[in-house]
Design a protein that fits this description.
37% strand, alpha/beta, 4-stranded mixed sheet, 2 helices
Length: 127
């Protein structure tokens, strides 16, 4: 259903390195790159995650209530990506672990990237 998700950055080089590391754990690689824009895809080329310096020249800012979620194949991958995000300067918004308040099978870690964008990495087995 989704074609792409885009978040703003004020430092495209730092954001590129941050997401290169995280998204590689999900099998994604850069598929489009320009001076102010980078896109990653995991191979199907129909869905991508992107970072961009705002086209209007103003600083990138974060939306209140906005969050991107990255699907991981298992709990170990959730733990690894969450830990990598914090090691690279991301900040904790909720440690990796079970979230029974959402579902007994929902496992997620929440963090903010270097620009303050909120993300989660999760694993969920549909009933």
């Amino acid at each position: 259903m989704l074609g792409y998700v885009m978040v703003g950055t004020n430092d495209i080089e730092k954001a590129g390195k941050f997401y290169d590391t995280l998204l590689a754990e999900l099998g994604a690689k850069r598929n489009i790159e320009a001076d102010s824009f980078i896109s990653w895809s995991s191979g199907d080329e129909t869905t991508s995650f992107c970072v961009i310096k705002p086209n209007d020249g103003n600083p990138a800012t974060v939306g209140n209530g906005v969050m991107m979620a990255l699907y991981a194949p298992d709990h170990a991958t959730v733990d690894k990506i969450y830990a990598l995000a914090l090691e690279m300067g991301g900040t904790c918004e909720g440690p990796a672990g079970s979230r029974p308040e959402f579902s007994p099978d929902f496992y997620a870690g929440y963090f903010r990237d270097l620009d303050g964008n909120k993300l989660n990495v999760f694993n969920f087995k549909m009933p």
